[in-house]
C-alpha cells in the first residue's frame, strides 16, 4: 500500500509541475536562489492535537522552481520525525503558491509510523536574491502506524491534517 501511495504522490507532483510550466509559460531560468533554511511550527489537528517545530533545508532542483527539502521535527509527547519534501512554487515575483508532496517517518516511544501528505500553502520568497522568506499552509495526509497487539504487528491508517507556518532565509 505504501508503494502505491508513493507512486500516486510522485505522479501528482509531476502533474503540478508540468501543468504550471506549460499553462503559465514561466521562465524558470531567472531563479538564482539555490538554498533555503527555515524553522517551522506546526500543529497536527485531530485526536493527536500535537504541537511541534522543525528545522528544514531546501535546495532548488536545477535552478528551477522545484525544491527538494529535508528536515527534523520534535513534537510534544516525545515524538520525533524526519521529513523529505518535494515542493513547487507557482507564480513569478515574490508571492507564490507552494504545492508539493511530503513524507515523514515518525518515531515515538511506543511505535513508529509514516505520514504521506500534500502541501498547499502561500510562500513569500524573492527567488532572485538572498532574502528572508515566510510560508503558511496546510498539509493533509494519510498516516500509517505500526502497533504490536498481542504479539501481532498491525498497520493502522488514518487521516492526519497538519497546519504549518515557517520563517527562513534563502541564499
Average pLDDT works out at: 81
* Proportion of residues in extended strands: over 45%
- Overall radius of gyration: 17 Å
Instruction: List the total number of helices.
Output: 1
Helix content: 10-25%
- The strands making up the biggest β-sheet line up spatially as 1-2-3-4-5-6-7-10
Helix and strand content put the structural class at mainly beta
Poorly predicted runs are 19-29
Instruction: Give helix and strand order, one letter per element, not per position.
Output: HEEEEEEEEEE
- Biggest sheet features: 8 strands, antiparallel, barrel
Give the N-terminus to C-terminus distance in angstroms.
Answer: 38 Å
Give the total of beta strands. 10
Please state the overall shape, judged from the principal axes of the Cα atoms: elongated
Give a quick precis of the structure.
The protein is built from 1 helix and 10 strands. The chain is mainly beta and 171 residues long.
What does this structure look like?
- This protein has 171 residues and is mostly beta strands.
- The protein has one helix spanning 2-24, and strands at 35-44, 50-60, 66-75, 79-90, 95-107, 112-124, 131-138, 141-149, 152-159, 162-170.
- The protein has an eight-stranded antiparallel β-barrel with strand order 1-2-3-4-5-6-7-10.
- The protein is elongated and about 55 Å long.
- It starts with a helix and ends with a strand.
